[in-house]
Amino acid sequence: QVQLVESGGGLVQSGGSLRLSCVASGTYSTINAMGWYRQTPGKQRELVARVTDLGFTNYADSVKGRFTISRDYAKNSVSLRMNSLKPEDTAVYYCNVDADSSGTIKTYWGQGTQVNVSS
């Protein structure tokens, strides 16, 4: 099992910045990909950014150039630096981790952290 603890959400004005962090703990062999998804009411959860165990990253088109994902392999953590925030970035952001436990890769989710961007 993997536990994910998120922090860093909040309220910010349009054009502002926030940093989200997520720390993984628990019982697992390795952590593969780590990333962030977001969801607004009535919509499907969507990928924001993801980083693999080899450091490859991918971003949603809507956040490219504004958001940066980074990973601390020693601390089993992942962060999302969000710059030039827009009202449409308002959502609940979820940390996502794929971890290998006893040869089985499972996906884990954090509890979510609210990001509100005012216009």
What does this structure look like?
The protein has 119 residues and is an all-beta fold. It is built from no helices and eleven strands. The chain has strands at residues 2-7, 10-13, 18-26, 30-39, 46-51, 57-59, 67-72, 77-82, 91-101, 104-109, 113-118. Strands 2, 4, 5, 6, 9, 10 and 11 form a seven-stranded mixed β-sheet that branches. Strands 1-3-8-7 form a four-stranded antiparallel β-sheet, with no helix packed on it. It is elongated and about 45 Å long. The model has no long low-confidence stretch (mean pLDDT 96).
Topology at a glance:
Elements: E1 2-7, E2 10-13, E3 18-26, E4 30-39, E5 46-51, E6 57-59, E7 67-72, E8 77-82, E9 91-101, E10 104-109, E11 113-118
Parallel strand pairs: 2-11
Antiparallel strand pairs: 1-3, 3-8, 4-5, 4-9, 5-6, 7-8, 9-10, 9-11
**Secondary structure: helix percent:** under 10%
Distance between the termini: 40 Å
> What fraction of the residues are assigned to beta strands by DSSP?
over 45%
Reading the helices and strands in chain order gives EEEEEEEEEEE
How many strands in all? Answer: 11
The unreliable regions are none
What best-fitting shape do the alpha-carbon axes yield?
elongated
Q: From the helix content, strand content and strand pairing, which structural class follows?
A: mainly beta
Biggest beta sheet attributes: 7 strands, mixed
Overall pLDDT score: 96
By DSSP (H or I, 4+ residues per run), the number of helices equals: 0
Gyration radius (Cα, Å) is 14 Å
